[in-house]
Amino acid sequence: MQWLRRTGVALALLASGCQGSGPPAAVAVRTSGCPRCGGVTRIGALPKGDLDECSGVVAGAAQADALYLHNDSGDGPRFFALGLDGAPRGELDVAGATAVDWEDVARGPCGAGGGSCLFFGDIGDNDRERDGVALYEVREPDALGGARRALSAEVISLAYPDGSNNAETLLVHPVTGAFTVVTKVKKNKGSARVYELSARPAAGQPATFAAAGAINAPVGKPQFTGGDVRPDGAGVLLRTYSHVFFYPMAPEQTVAQALAGPPCEMPAADEDQGEAIAWVPGGWDYVTIGEGDEAPIHRVSCQAP
Q1: H/E element holding 172?
Q2: Sign of the dihedral defined by the CA atoms of residues 249, 183, 9, 15, in that order
Q3: What's the whole-model pTM score?
Q4: What tens digit of pLDDT does each residue of 78-105 get?
């Protein structure tokens, strides 16, 4: 890692369809054009109760200082709204959805009628045996608090072009609404694969992702477990169990194209089974959360590159 930092060599790996079983080649870490960040700060914790296996988080747009979170597999089709400090702000069911293995949530433009929508990624497949996966589009709540209630979902059924894949990272472009999935490598071998769906299918119609390359974590554990696209489209966060990376994104780039470049290594908290990460609106800060009862909420404060 120190050698990589000293040289600053940019050796991005984008090998479409790569499925090598050996260890991935070294990937350099970007040393310029990176956000300037402070250390990791604990700002709160998840409330005691049902939110005990947090797998995905995203910040709201319509509701100030709101985080939307969901559990990993084993829970039903529901999500939770919290304040940045972990204070409960609501529990919501997703009507018309099932929860085989929800692994991530993203926010982006709604497919119809404008506005901000949440997209819950039922994309987990540890045994790699599912014929297809699903995204559930839910309009961001216009109010929080009060009794538990249900929100209707639009189902987007998806398949991969090359069979089953296990994934824990869902990314939505904030302008185009394109969907990107980054797979999770099995047994620490090979490269993660990137798939994109650039155009939303017609309502009720299934669609197939397009293969869009491959990616390796530059350092640390190789499994990508979550990510988030900046609301202004200026970059992408990806996390693993051990590290956080920032991939700059130009206005004309797709998310997959941004992920082909060398990333910046960002401050990362020491978390148990860390899978959730999200930008905080209004700046360059981000939050991360691991799994477990009353898991800490960590925040990293950054300034623009």
Answers
A1: strand 167-172
A2: negative
A3: 0.91
A4: 999 999 999 999 999 999 999 999 999 9
